[in-house]
Design brief:
The protein is an all-alpha fold and 467 residues long. The chain has one domain: Amino acid/polyamine transporter I (Up-down Bundle). It contains 18 helices and no strands. The longest helix is centred in the last third of the chain and has 40 residues.
């Protein structure tokens, strides 16, 4: 089968635009709070070293596989998998990879837009000076009152979805590239500004020690699983994004060096975010381990205690919003590209229809924080918890596992040689070992580690019901 040399949706104008787009997808809300916190809690510098090993052995090989498959297929993930399986004379059951990625991305976007809406709201709250010299009770009550107001949540969710759909509806060149050209450089500038502010906050040494002291005594087998999970999830793997973005990559761009650059850029942003946030938290004697609440309770409170805190707190939430929007447009692209191809429809119309459906599903997440807060779907999981769990902990690891296996063991060697430059020899053997054995085993361990707590909870509930 002759595969297309260009995507019908357009192409990235340069390798660096793809790097920025993929990094924008990878850099999201989790980079701002999760990576720095789990680093500090799991061995500091020791965890960073383990994480880099996991990125090299799990994250980079799977991202290379996704981008390679996308560039070879030049279509949405679903149609790419159809083309690749037909060309390799493989079962079309492998197309399940594309479907699972598209659906997972859609599910994640439905609740991601809600949480990103919180960041938009906090730009306004922080700029208004609400948190200047605020008490912990005021910071907590402000956040809790916001969560209990479904109309406000829906309003900011809607605003974020409108921005996202407007960007993706304009196409690769006018929409995605234009947004990336502006948002990513601005994100880096804002991060540097916050980092400079943090260095002078009075808690930089403590923040640095929290993240980088080599605490090998805190390293356990669980630390490796956490590091593998973070290496996988932070690079936006398994959801079809890299396959969709890979379809727009020029043939002249080297996939290996490009993917390594993306991984290093994503890690640099995560580390810089930690060094920008935690010194400010420690300077005010606050607790760093608040999860997502760190962004909306602890950080506003910390900025409120410092000179020009309202200004730099606003800058922080603009930064968070930029990170969220670049991730959101990447979550939208796989499903949008498929619908455009399948129905030969106009991109703008598909974008609007997809946005409305995603917005409607997101209402379940909105209500999970107020009206439906006592409604549990299974195992004590609210609607939001359930959608998050199924998409993040089940669909993405399975997708990544299957992508790695297909790319290494099902694709013809000629495809790998064309896309990655792998000729028979030691390098090809190393690729098969890392990409086809180590990476899948790592993702499988992450999957088992993720699902065991819920399975254990369900088992205990069944046993309790049976008396």
């Amino acid at each position: 089968m002759a595969l297309a040399s260009d995507s019908r949706h357009g192409m990235w104008s340069s390798r660096w635009l793809f790097v920025l787009a993929a990094a924008g997808s990878a850099v999201g809300l989790g980079n701002i709070w999760k990576f720095p916190y789990i680093t500090g809690e799991n061995g500091g510098g020791a965890f960073v070293l383990i994480y880099l090993v996991c990125v090299a052995l799990v994250g980079i090989p799977i991202m290379m596989s996704e981008v390679m498959m996308g560039r070879q297929g030049r279509s949405s993930p679903i149609h790419t998998m159809r083309k690749l399986t037909d060309d390799a004379n493989r079962s079309r059951r492998w197309t399940f990879i594309g479907w699972m990625g598209v659906i997972a991305g859609f599910l994640i976007l439905s609740y991601y837009a809600v949480i990103a809406g919180w960041a938009l709201k906090y730009i306004w709250i922080t700029a208004s000076g609400t948190f200047e010299a605020a008490t912990p009770d005021l910071a907590s009550s402000t956040f809790n009152e916001f969560l209990t107001d479904p109309l406000q949540l829906i309003g900011f969710q809607t605003l974020f979805m409108v921005l996202t759909i407007w960007i993706v509806g304009r196409g690769v060149s006018k929409g995605l590239e234009t947004a990336i050209r502006w948002f990513m450089p601005l994100l880096f500038v804002l991060l540097i500004v916050l980092l400079g502010y943090s260095i002078n906050s009075g808690g930089f040494a403590q923040g640095w020690a929290f993240m980088f002291d080599l605490k090998f005594d805190q390293v356990t087998p669980e630390t490796w699983l956490i590091a593998m999970g973070q290496a996988f999830f932070t690079l936006s793997l398994g959801m079809g994004t890299m396959m969709a973005y890979g379809a727009y990559v020029p043939q002249s761009a080297g996939i290996g060096s490009t993917v390594v650059t993306i991984a290093l850029l994503d890690t640099a942003v995560a580390v810089s975010a930690g060094l920008a946030i935690f010194p400010i938290v420690f300077a005010n004697g606050l607790e760093p381990g608040q999860g997502p609440g760190l962004m909306f309770v602890t950080v506003p409170l910390a900025f409120g205690q410092l000179p020009l805190g309202a200004v730099f707190g606003t800058v922080f939430f603009v930064l968070v919003s930029f990170a969220a929007i670049t991730s959101a447009i990447s979550l939208t692209e796989p499903a949008l590209a498929y619908l455009v191809e399948e129905y030969n429809a106009k991109r703008q119309r598909v974008a609007i229809s997809l946005g409305v459906m995603c917005w409607a599903l997101g209402l379940g997440t909105v209500l999970s924080f107020n009206v439906w807060s006592d409604f549990y779907i299974v195992g004590g999981l609210t609607f939001f918890d359930f959608v998050d769990y199924v998409s993040q902990n089940v669909m993405l690891p399975l997708g990544g596992l299957l992508i790695a296996l297909f790319a290494v063991w099902a694709l013809p060697h000629a495809v790998r040689e064309k896309q990655l430059g792998l000729k028979p020899g030691a390098l090809n053997v190393s690729w098969k070992l890392v990409g086809g054995v180590i990476a899948p085993v790592g993702v499988l361990l992450v999957f088992i580690y993720s699902v065991l707590p819920v399975l254990r909870s369900l088992y205990e509930n069944v046993v309790a019901l049976m008396g």
